């Protein structure tokens, strides 16, 4: 880390799913699965590109209930099947170029996420840890101020993953 680099506190959320790790892993790495559970509750996901490997990309759109369309992109940095996925997540434009969040100019442009998959005897515990990179002090403060909303948002997303996994047994 450079001497003048600003860092934010890390956001962490964890959930245990009643499904084996290989099924949960596939839910995070297969196009059809991601389209069924990723994103905020009530939105429709369209997967434009999915290449789950170091250097690969997940580019998608989210059609929100209000009718607007938001774009997002993951740039995968490390993928260790079935243990860990590391990616930088950003809002994007339709072409997949990083863009500002549609809801705030203060949201960080890039967030590095580490998702770990823990085998717990037929169940799987996922831990997601995220922190902004290359962010300003204002962006870091805004990110930290959104932890409660992020817990709710990821909670809803993980509810959808739970529902999806129940169909995969």
Strand order of the largest sheet: 1-7-6-5-4-3-2
The computed structural class is alpha+beta
| Total of DSSP H or I helical runs spanning 4+ residues | 4
| Uncertain regions spanning at least 5 consecutive residues | none
**How much is the radius of gyration in Å?**
16 Å
Average residue pLDDT: 95
Within the CATH hierarchy, at the fold level, what is the topology?
Alpha-D-Glucose-1,6-Bisphosphate, Chain A, domain 4
Q: In percent, how much strand structure appears in the residues?
A: 35-45%
**General shape:** globular
CATH class: Alpha Beta
Number of strand elements: 7
CATH superfamily: START domain
Number of domains: 1
CATH architecture: 2-Layer Sandwich
Distance between the termini: 44 Å
Largest sheet: 7 strands, antiparallel
- Element-level helix/strand string: EHHEEEEEEHH
Q: Could you estimate the helical fraction of the residues in percent?
A: 25-40%
Indicate the topology.
Elements lengths: L10 E7 L3 H9 L1 H7 L6 E7 L6 E7 L5 E12 L3 E9 L18 E10 L2 E10 L4 H9 L1 H20 L3
Antiparallel strand pairs: 1-7, 2-3, 3-4, 4-5, 5-6, 6-7
Helix pairs in contact: 1-2
Describe the structure.
This protein is of the alpha+beta class. It has one domain: 2-Layer Sandwich (Alpha-D-Glucose-1,6-Bisphosphate, Chain A, domain 4), CATH 3.30.530.20. Helices cover 27% and strands 37% of the residues. The protein is built from 4 helices and 7 strands; from the N terminus they run E-H-H-E-E-E-E-E-E-H-H. It has helices spanning 21-29, 31-37, 137-145, 147-166, and strands spanning 11-17, 44-50, 57-63, 69-80, 84-92, 111-120, 123-132. The chain has a 7-stranded antiparallel sheet with strand order 1-7-6-5-4-3-2. Strand 3 and strand 4 form a beta hairpin. The chain is globular. The protein starts with 10 loop residues before the first strand and ends with a helix. The model has no long low-confidence stretch (mean pLDDT 95).
């Amino acid at each position: 880390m450079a001497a003048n680099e600003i860092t934010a506190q890390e956001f962490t959320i964890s959930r245990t799913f009643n499904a084996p790790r290989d099924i949960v892993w596939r839910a995070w790495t297969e196009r059809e699965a991601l389209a069924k559970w990723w994103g905020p509750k009530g939105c429709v996901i369209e997967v434009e590109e999915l290449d789950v490997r170091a250097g690969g990309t997940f580019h998608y759109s989210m059609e929100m209930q209000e009718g607007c369309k938001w774009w997002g992109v993951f740039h995968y940095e490390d993928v260790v099947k079935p243990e860990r996925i590391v990616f930088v997540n950003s809002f994007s434009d339709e072409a997949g170029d990083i863009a500002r969040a549609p809801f705030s100019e203060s949201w960080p442009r890039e967030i590095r996420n580490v998702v770990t998959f823990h085998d717990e005897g037929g169940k799987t515990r996922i831990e997601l840890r995220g922190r902004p990179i290359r962010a300003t002090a204002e962006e870091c403060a805004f990110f930290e101020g959104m932890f409660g909303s992020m817990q709710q948002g990821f909670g809803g997303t993980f509810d959808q993953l739970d529902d999806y996994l129940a169909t995969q047994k």
